[in-house]
Amino acid sequence: MLRGQPLKGLILILILGLMAGYPLLRLLGESFIYDAHLSLENYRQIATQPANYIALGNTLSVGIVVTVLATAVGTILAWLVARTDLPGKEWFKPWLLLPYLIPPFIGAFAWTQLLGPVGYLNKLYQAFSGSEEPIVNIYGWGGIILVLVMHSYPLVYLTSIGAFGRIDTTLEEAARVAGATHWRVQRDVTLPLMTPAILNGAILVFSYTISNFGVPATLGFSEGCYVLTTWIYDLIKNASLSNHLALAAALSVILGLLAGASLLGANLVMRGKNYAVIIGKGGGASTIPLRCWRRPLALAVALFVLCFSLAPVLAILLTSFIRAYGLEPVPDNLTLEHYRYVLCGMPVAQRALFNSAILALAGATLAMILGGITAYVSLKSGWRQRSFLEFLSSLPNNVPGTVVALAMIITYSQPLPLTGWRLYNTLWIILLAYIIRYLIFPVRSTAATLSQVAGSLEEAARLSGARWWQAMRDIIVPLAWPGLMAGWFLVLIPAMHELTVSVLLWSVGNETLGVAVFNLQEAGSVPATAALAVVTIVLVLTVYFLFRRMAKVDTGF
Amino acid sequence: MFNKMKFFLLVLVLSLQLAACGGQPAREQSKPNSNALEVAEAKGVVNIYTSVPEDLINELVSRFQQKYPQLTLKIYRAGTPEVIAKIETEARAGAVHADVAWIAETTAAEDLKEKGLLRTYNSPEASNIPANLKDPSGYYYGSRLINMVLAYNTKLVSPPPTSWKDLLSQAHKGKIGIPTPASSGSALYAVGSLVNHSDFGWKFFEDMRSNGGVQLKNNSEAVQKVATGELHLAVALDYQVKNLRDKGSPIDYVVPAEGLVMVASPVTLLKDSPNPRGGEVFLNYVISRECQQFMAENQSVVPVRTDVKPPAGIPSLSELKAMKSDPVFIKKNKTQLVEQFTRIFTN
């Protein structure tokens, strides 16, 4: 009965290998080619350039500091919401996730409107103090960290809040019965139990941070603060060196190894931990009374939401209405002109909206189909095939987007063999990149659903005479549907506002929404950028909330 | 459920555009165009790769489209080095998509020419362009003269600066900027000319960095930051300053005592491009009397044609004090100029 499985697995491994593995291998190969010969010259050139060490150092320092801060913020907020009697915590929940739904490069741009040298806060300060100097400057190392912390703490918050809910309460109760105070229990029992979940979130933050392109590109440039992603981007876009792509490939290999090492490190750390104490369904964990701290803490969380989630969004909203950048935000200076311009007067923005809608829908659908098949096949395969499938489908997500994009350029700038098709300079190359990059989301969500389903249902159908496709149509797909839908959605949202990959792969007529905002911000007017950014945010939030209402599936957040 | 959702999302995106665009006035009736043979047979999409700033190129595109409705322009806008890198990557891939490259300075056009990526073209519009502003064999034509000058914020800086060396003044510490040659062709020219000048050299840029100078991505960022007061002084393009000044922003510029840096922006046609006729129509349009006049009158761009008057308030070419720029030096040392600049401004 299962004789066909190994073959299906092999075919799938071949397909995924071609789609996801091959381009990354080509990138690796390119980094060892100098002057059409196999050589270490590219790496030697990299090693002798001090600027590369600075970029690497910044990547590491930003990565580490953001990870520490975002982990602290995320854990504390998750604890307050999940375990205490914090007033209004139901109300806080969606607001605490808002930064997660806003693309980070738009967040960075929004923060410049607030804390830039001529941002609203500095203007306000100067007006009151009479000083001519701004009080804070968002540009540079510190600003990059602030914005990345704000956009990455939800990763820790989400993993921790889930684990807080699943914690085995009997251990806590035992400690309480033995006479320990609430605080002592939280410190000595709960926190150690939570460590794997928190660490897991921290690793997600680290790889998110070192992979991020939009934030350091927006905030780091003028201060000369480069990280590896922006440094690689500049190398790719600068043809003054004849081996610029090979150098970029070599740096990409280093960045990819860094991301890989962090994941490996996480696995090593986790291995020693005992998961058993976090049980599947907890519930009934005691609520910690905050007592006299209730109000001050609620106020603190409210202020946090107001200052860090809402204020930047309000700042770009305000900027998007200002007639000319730099004018005072008084009623006379407000206009809707920029919205008319970006939606009607700017063909690029219209194309970008359309392209991103197509890319998100097609990318999500195709990734869902391929991911669903992968999850199904790997569930039926032996561990060797399964780990291969798991590796191939998660690889392009585990390495930074910049690396994937460069791999696509190197692989597909030549016409495809046999067919002669050219993917470079078309929308197809972006679509392909999105599919491999986000493939792991539907794989995981479908596998989670399918693993709860007894294989006997399918077998019963087959034994009753159903063909495999009938069993598929009537049994497997309906059962896997919630997982497929969740996977579809998990691809749709990031694909709508993707920047890191498309900024390297776009071409004339094939602009994405992220690219349109980014380019407008680099060389256009600030209020128009703000208007297009607001349009993007509104679009993402609308889709997010509509989907949650219509599909009623648990999307994981 | 699934299809409904997809349908719904598409409707959402489209209605968003429709809702905002509903009240748009009907397109002006297109005028009959000059009946040159190639215009008649040119149609379809023309891909323009250019470093011309967003607002200027958008303006030109909409004017061009009214005149030639049978052609659709698609624009790839980026700094000159990025435009060149894009074209070279396409060439390596065996398919150049750009029909026209309209970039900031001639050494970039020379690079493309050397690599065999350009084709010669004998433009019927070229007779009014002086010989020193076009390639003798017709590989590229000067399209506009852009000048790198010293922009200053009129509210914050008084008296106005007089020399490039004002960038080193303690009074402006931390409030000065310069576009990077890594992403701007005109900046490459400015940096190359200053480095090659006996009074400046790399020491000047090192001192500028010590004085808190920051690198900027492009010329548009330079004028915006000076206009908002984020910077006091910046190296910038004259016509962009003038445009903002005319809109009421507190910005102006001076021609430094040592002279401005004059850059001739070339427009070129790519070899084996998808729409060669369409590319020619656009090139001819850019150097036509009509377009040059428009750029001079509405955008303060110095024209290349002898039969078009320079913009009001800008001295004629002979009166302008220009610093000596050596294209041979700049072309030869391009990589080194970019690297050294980046080294200074990223530490």
UniProtKB/TrEMBL annotation, chain A:
It is found in: Cell inner membrane; Cell membrane. Signal peptide: none annotated. Coiled coil: none annotated. Keywords: Cell inner membrane, Cell membrane, Membrane, Transmembrane, Transmembrane helix, Transport. Pfam families: BPD_transp_1. GO terms for biological process: transmembrane transport. Its main location: membrane. One of its GO terms (cellular component) is plasma membrane. InterPro entries: MetI-like (IPR000515), MetI-like_sf (IPR035906). It comes from the Bacteria. The keyword Glycoprotein does not apply. The chain crosses the membrane at residues 7-25, 60-82, 94-118, 138-158, 191-210, 245-269, 297-322, 357-379, 391-411, 423-440, 475-496, 528-547. Residues 56-266, 353-547 form the ABC transmembrane type-1 domain. Gene3D superfamilies: MetI-like. It is a multi-pass membrane protein. Belongs to the binding-protein-dependent transport system permease family. This is Putative 2-aminoethylphosphonate transport system permease protein PhnV.
Automatic annotation (TrEMBL), chain B:
It comes from the Bacteria. GO terms for molecular function: metal ion binding; thiamine binding; thiamine pyrophosphate binding. Pfam families: SBP_bac_8. Keywords: Iron, Metal-binding, Signal. Residues 1-19 form the signal peptide. InterPro entries: Ferric-bd (IPR026045), SBP (IPR006059). Gene3D superfamilies: Periplasmic binding protein-like II. GO terms for biological process: thiamine transport. The keyword Iron applies. GO terms for cellular component: outer membrane-bounded periplasmic space. Fe cation binds at residue 239. This is Iron uptake protein A1. The lineage of its organism: Bacteria, Bacillati, Bacillota, Clostridia, Neomoorellales.
